[in-house]
Fold this sequence. Notes:
With 316 residues, the chain is an alpha+beta fold.
Amino acid sequence: MPPAKYSTYRRAGVKILLLVNASASSVTARGRVLIQKALSADHDVTLAETTRRGNATRLARSAAATGTEMVVVLGGDGTLNEAANGLVGTACALATLPGGSTNVFARTLGLPNDPLEATAVLLDALERKAIRPVGLGSVNGRYFLFHTGVGFDAAVVHEVEKRSTLKRYAGHPLFLWASVTTWMRHYDHARPRFALHLPDGSVIDDGYLTLVLNTDPYTFLGNRPLNITDGAGLDRPLAALTLRSLNLSTLLGVVAAALTGRSVAGGKKVDLHTGLDGLRITGHGPFPYQVDGDYLGEASELVFKHEPGALRLLIP
C-alpha cells in the first residue's frame, strides 16, 4: 500500500455522528455509553440509532449535508455498508467500530474485535488525522467495502439471515451450519447459474459461486482469516474468484487453501482474476447475491465497477 496522504482538520475537535445499530451482536447499552463518553472527551459527538434497513444511509447522508466531519459506525458490516453508501462523494469521512458478529471490514483494517479496545485505536488515528480517500467496488450502483458474493455464497448468507435472532449468539457456528445445509438442500448443484464476462472479452459461462473482492480476507472463521488473494486492496482494482463446481473436493480445497495462506486457484474448476476495473455477470435464470454480508435477493445481471477514491476513510 503506498504512503497515505492524510487530511488536516480546521480545529482540534471533530464534529462526529456516532451511528449505532443497537441490535447488532456486540453492541451493549454500557458499551455504547462508554464509547460515546470516550469520543466526546475531545470531540463534538451526536448519537443516532438505526431503526430499520436502509436507515444508516439516510442518516449518514444527512450528517454529511449538515457539516458533520466524520460518521463513526458502531454496528455490523451491513450497517457500515449502508453508511458508506451515504457518504460516497462527500467530504465527510467514515470510521468503524466492531459491533457485529464477524466485523470483516474493521478487522481487515487491523482494529481489535472488542469495541472498547477499538475505540482507543480509533481515537489515536483521529489524533494523527489519519484520513485518506480509498477505492470501493460497486454493483448495479450499490457500493461495497469488502466483497460481493454471487451464487452459493449468497444462498448461505440468506439461510443465516433467516435465523437472525441466533446470529447474535452463534454467529460462526450458524454460518458453518448454514453452509452445510445450503449445500445439501438449498442450492442446485446440477447446473451452472451464471456467466462472468471479463474486461479482456473472455467469458466463464459455468459459474456456481463468485466472490468479487475489494479487500482481502474474504471473511474470518473465528480468529482465522480466509485469505483469497493479495491482489485485492483499498488501493487496487477488484479481484474475482469463481468456482465452476460445487463438489466437496473443490469447496474444501478452496477453504483449506484460504485458511492456510496457500493459493486458492490451484484446481481445474477454480478461476481467480485480479486487476479488474469492472466485470459483468449474467444469469442462466435468476441467481442470488449479497453485498458486504447483506442478502439482496436475486438478479439476472450484475455490473461491477471499481471506483477509485470514492470514500474518505479513517485508517487505524
